[in-house]
Amino acid sequence: MRTVGVEEELLLVDPDTGDPKALAAAVLAHVAHDDPGQDVFEKELFRQMLEFATHPQSDMAALAEEIVRWRKEAARHAGGIGSAVAALATSPLPASPSLSVNERYQWLAERYGIPTWEQLVCGCHVHVAVESDEEGIAVLDRIRPWLPVLRAISANSPFWQGQDTSYASYRSRVWNRWPSAGPTELFGSAERYHRRVADMVATGALLDEGMVYFDARLSARYPTVEIRVADVCLSADTAALIATLSRALVETAAQDWRAGLPAPGHSVSLLRLADWQAARFGLEENLLDPVTMRPGPAAQVLRSLLEHTGDALTRCGDAERAEQGVAELLRRGNGAREQRRLLERTGSLRDVVTECVRHTQG
């Protein structure tokens, strides 16, 4: 059974006003004092962000429980210094990001200028175990057209600097300003993948391999495929669903590779359009069908995803969990829909943030 791990970035906010607060160092100091040796939480690019990483899990129920646990622990530690955490992929309120003290982050700011300072965005990265780099590349080549569907499911960033962007996932539009971000062409082999990464770093435009921000990549730290398209999800249940579907996609791709089935040959141009469609509308309108690259209702495309991964979901014991998760998601909507629903009800973006703080704490 493939193991899965999840990394989530949370936004640190003032519990009363909802404004982002640059308190990551203080939160991490509180963690170190209360839980010596705790290695789950880390700082991120900006001091208004806090990241945690789960342990690798083969049981999706256990992974879901761990996501909830670390969200609650993040909230507890933030509360200990008068702050709060919110699972928001962008700040609904205007923000002035404060860079963390780190030579790497300073290099990014000097190299890329304003786009770096506009990267106060929070994502969810899913690591799925693979047996080798060759299997990993076979997986990356075959999951490409399905990644925009995960983007749509997770979409949780409709607001930016106090305005409605008209997007469900505006985080993805901000993130794609990095020159190495986005979908990739087919690699075909691990050797070609590593050569491409080395060539990209050799240009000098990137600091190192860690800056290869593909939508999905081989992890440089773990024997995993790292799927990076998701917004941090407002609901922990949605994050667990993304992880469940990610493992099923990886398992399905690996099985297809072993069976000698070719990878879909969609061009990067089409994949970018599919990703834009998912970011713009989330689950509210059509998505591009990953097989045909033609528009289809979001519910129908999600059904196609379940069918595509059905055998893998069954083998992993996740079929019922995935079916129920998708049904619930379609009923209540993703984080973008919930944020807009909260704004319609309260009339205040500050109230949206404070309500999302409560959502994050479960």
TrEMBL record:
InterPro entries: GCL_type2/YbdK_subfam, GCS2, Gln_synth/guanido_kin_cat_dom, YbdK. It is an enzyme of class 6 (ligase). It comes from Streptomyces filipinensis. Keywords: ATP-binding, Ligase, Nucleotide-binding. Gene3D superfamilies: 3.30.590.20. This is Putative glutamate--cysteine ligase 2. Its EC number is 6.3.2.2. Belongs to the glutamate--cysteine ligase type 2 family. YbdK subfamily. It catalyses: L-cysteine + L-glutamate + ATP = gamma-L-glutamyl-L-cysteine + ADP + phosphate + H(+). SUPFAM superfamilies: Glutamine synthetase/guanido kinase. One of its GO terms (biological process) is modified amino acid biosynthetic process. One of its GO terms (molecular function) is glutamate-cysteine ligase activity. It holds the Pfam family GCS2. ATP-dependent carboxylate-amine ligase which exhibits weak glutamate--cysteine ligase activity.
